[in-house]
Amino acid sequence: MAGNNHGHTPAAWTGVTIAFIGFCVAAAFIVLANPIGFWAGMVVVVLGGVVGAAMRAAGLGQAPKRQPQAQPQAQTQQ
Q: Where exactly are the transmembrane stretches of this chain (predicted)?
């Protein structure tokens, strides 16, 4: 797992951090029985995903892996 650099990018860290904060806010408002605060926290969770995707589109995420193209084999003439 350590060799593939999975999720070690600014886009991933920022998106997950924002979503985690939103989750904590939503959880606190569930305990306080406040549905408006809960939904505000859920909006922050979704915002974390949007920010992460925008940062990846801006080039701060991990580049997609490209599959190697199969080389056509040369035919031998007999």
A: 12-32, 38-58
